[in-house]
Amino acid sequence: MTNEKNVHALQRMGAECIGENDLSVFGDIWADEVVDHDPAPGQGPGGAGLKGFWSDFLEAFPDLQIEVDELMADDDRVTIAYRVNGTHQGEFMGAAPTGSKMEIRGLQMSRHREDGKIVERWGSSDVLGILQQIGATDL
Questions:
Q1: Which of 20, 23, 24, 31 has the smallest set of CB atoms within 10 Å of its CB?
Q2: Average pLDDT, stretch 79-90?
Q3: Pairing of strands 77-87, 101-112
């Protein structure tokens, strides 16, 4: 198996799901049984939980953009270092919309099965940075 399918899956996630705010292809990218080793607070299990998180995140930041700074891939894993930015236009983690802009950095590693779908995810994003930038915390 080549890593091209795996990289393509993440490119679709960035371009279509995030860039176009369209989760209709989410099931083509994430396996239903995906294990997220670093779920967001309140995120449910599996693909449904991840889709729910992304739906809420894109509602809070409908102009969300992602830029991949580094990408490494082998046969079944893809690791990215990325930046996301957007404008707080909907509720996020209990914080009412402020119109504030945010930009954070993060890392993600995904393991893919043979058809390219993601079956495991590890990641770290600067959620505290988001909350500080939208004025949701005084830390």
A1: 24
A2: 97
A3: antiparallel
The full 3-state SS of the chain, as one line of letters, equals CCCHHHHHHHHHHHHHHHCCCCHHHHHHHEEEEEEECCCCCCCCCHHHHHHHHHHHHHHHCCCCEEEEEEEEECCCEEEEEEEEEEECCCCECCECCCCCEEEEEEEEEEEECCCCCEEEEEEEECHHHHHHHCCCCCC
In this structure, are residues 93 and 41 in contact, taking their beta carbons and an 8 Å threshold? Answer: yes
pLDDT at 70 over 70: yes
| 96-126 pLDDT per residue, tens | 999 999 999 999 999 999 999 999 999 999 9
Is residue 111 a contact partner of residue 118, using CB atoms and an 8 Å limit? yes
